[in-house]
From TrEMBL:
InterPro entries: J517_1871_lipoprot
Organism this protein belongs to: Marinobacter algicola DG893
The protein, known as: Lipoprotein
Domain of life: Bacteria
PROSITE patterns: PROKAR_LIPOPROTEIN
Length: 136
């Protein structure tokens, strides 16, 4: 029994060490957005793990990230500033454009690089996100 308890403790401790950092929402609220590169303005749909997600980036540097999977759906704000996209959930991420693809590379190495396709008509977006982002 003692060995089992130590095993669960070690697994739990490992989980704490490898958990993503929790961004401070205060930093996000106080962040002043910059106008993003013109090629990044628009609607972009891709996968974030099991979620179908759509990112909206506006000329003002503000936008939204909408995600949908099974019974969870939600919309959260994003801001472009200092060359990065900022989000309360994944913190900050470098973004780049590769042809018709928005590449989102979070600073937190526990998150993979995400690839979003240009989706101005929300054809690939989840139904929930179509409704939230204006084409529902």
């Amino acid at each position: 029994m003692k060995k089992i308890s130590l095993l669960f403790f070690a697994i739990g401790l490992g989980g704490c060490v490898s958990s993503p950092t929790i961004p401070d929402a205060t930093e996000f609220v106080e962040l002043n957005p910059d106008p993003p590169p013109p090629a990044s303005v628009g609607l972009w749909t891709g996968a974030m793990g099991p979620y179908i997600s759509t990112i909206e980036i506006t000329e003002s540097g503000r936008g939204r990230l909408c995600s949908s999977y099974a019974s969870w759906e939600g919309v959260m704000g994003v801001k472009y500033s200092s060359g990065q996209l900022h989000h309360v959930g994944f913190g900050s991420a470098d973004i780049s454009i590769e042809g018709p693809t928005l590449v989102v590379d979070p600073d937190d190495t526990l998150y993979p690089t995400y690839r979003f396709k240009s989706d101005l008509d929300l054809v690939e977006a989840a139904d929930y996100c179509k409704a939230q982002l204006g084409s529902g």
